[in-house]
Amino acid sequence: MLHLAEGLRLPTNGLDYTLLGIYFVVVLGIGFAARRSVKTSLDFFLSGRSLPAWITGLAFVAANLGATEILGMAANGAQYGVYTVHWYWVGAIPAMVFLGLVMMPFYYGSKVRSVPEFLLHRFGPSSHLLSSIIFAVSSVLIAGVNLYALALVLKALLGWELWVSIVIAGFFVLAYITLGGLSSAIYTEVLQFFVILAALIPLTVVGLKRVGGWGGISDTLSGEKGDAFMTAWDGTGIGSGNPLGANWLTIVLGLGFVMSFGYWTTNFAEVQRALSAKNLSAAKRTPLIAAFPKIFIPAVVVIPGLIALVMEPTLGKTKDGLQYNDAIPVLMRDLLPNGVLGIAVTGLLAAFMAGMAANISSFNTVFTNDIYAAYLKKDRPDEHYVQTARWVTVVGVLIGMGTAFIASSFSNIMNYLQTLFSFFNVPLFVVFIIGMFWKKTTPAAGFWGLLSGTVAAMVNYFWFYKQGVIDIPTDQGANFVSSIVAFVVGSVVMVAVTLFTKPKPAEELAGLVYGTSSPGAPELPEKGDDVWYRKPALLGWGAMILAALCYIPFSF
């Protein structure tokens, strides 16, 4: 089950609770301050498209740096070793660069408010409604994981009852999103980014000192797990065995291309931050700015997982004992003094809230704009949709409380999330990438490609893998295979359907297909956009080269 060990308790005192209380007050203060700027639905859903790139860039990476990232990737570090860095340097950076340089001009230039709305323009109502439903379902599923995990952490670490933890956490997320909309979520995420780092950096530094530095980790775990456990690529040859249960081909194609591009380019919880930028240049730079801190996140997430495995060798070995998800809380319990411990608990709380807020804010946008306003209640006053979005936020949190319990069958919450991504994000990426680069792709092809890719991923996971029809060593390996299956099936179906159905007229595809120009006058660059550090191409290539260089120390 998704749980922290019952006996895991932190020696918190009044100082720690005071720091936690101050954080709550600041968060609510941001919500009340942001409320004054919310006058229209565009303000509520996209901050009026007024935010600078450095704000949206930090919010972009913070929205991803949630509880699932911190607990999940630390769990992956303890379970799979250094192989976990693939989720960052292959499984994130190239896709973030592609989003900034290639896809943001389509998203931002078309002035859409959500990712499904882009599909409405490109493929029509059928694909739009299907994608909106998929986004809404996946958003509350992932938000529920964050909320439930937060409640369990507070119960295990602070002794709070589960229902108390859920009510308190849900109240604060509801309060600041309902008050200030996306602006509140984004400014809070920027604060949370620094709070999270303030929690994780001391934990990593003190932990490394305790276990004898990187050399101590390598000697201990190489002796216990084998040399491959401490490298990124050793043992990934086709037919070779490794803790991850995947070879270089499934890592590069399944994780590095299909899952990664599927997540980063279509996940509205991330894209929404870039859409709130003040101009196209800032929107393009948003994921590129976020890529640089993302490169170094393994140092404060994956390495603590390895440290925890050295300090607690029983992690994940027994069903009723410490689980891989316990890696970060174990280090907090054993290493941090009061005061610093309060900052760490606050950082962990901030991470859960950031992840949940990102998904709830994307849920209220997609449901209100792409389902309610488009198909249920058309042409109502703008104030009506803002009020509806606030109620949808409440409903989203309540649904998230229920759906969170689905995650209880996974001892590693990152395995669960990657399963969701293979079901929902990969098929969307297939539709986007083919529709953007092949003008003849038809509306019918978009709908059937999305549906068939989703079904194919589920069939592969629940039937071929879970029923033992094919032998895949791990859940993560199965997720990589499911992603490849979804991509291949969705692509084949889209090509086949396109050959037998009618495409949209060329004049309706302006700005929606690569090589076509957006209608209307081009957006003029702002003063200073020609400075070297504001050039998207330079930022993109810099992030790619830096990520590739990071592999060198871990490749041999």
TrEMBL record:
Q: What is the lineage of its organism?
A: Bacteria, Bacillati, Actinomycetota, Actinomycetes, Kitasatosporales
Protein's name in the database:
Na+/galactose cotransporter
PANTHER family in the record: SODIUM_GLUCOSE COTRANSPORTER 4, SOLUTE CARRIER FAMILY 5
This protein's source sits in the domain of life called Bacteria
Q: How does it sit in the membrane?
A: Multi-pass membrane protein
Is-annotated flag, keyword Membrane? yes
Q: Write out the GO MF terms.
A: D-glucose:sodium symporter activity
Asked if the record carries the keyword Transmembrane, the reply is yes
Q: Name one Pfam family in it.
A: SSF
> Per UniProt, which keywords does this protein have?
Membrane, Transmembrane, Transmembrane helix
> TM segments?
17-34, 54-75, 87-108, 129-154, 160-179, 186-208, 246-266, 287-311, 340-367, 388-410, 416-438, 445-465, 477-500, 537-554
Which family is this sequence assigned to?
Belongs to the sodium:solute symporter (SSF) (TC 2.A.21) family.
Chief subcellular location: membrane
**Matching NCBIfam families:** sss
* Record GO cellular component, one term: plasma membrane
**Source organism (scientific name):** Streptomyces reniochalinae
Q: Where in the cell is it found?
A: Membrane
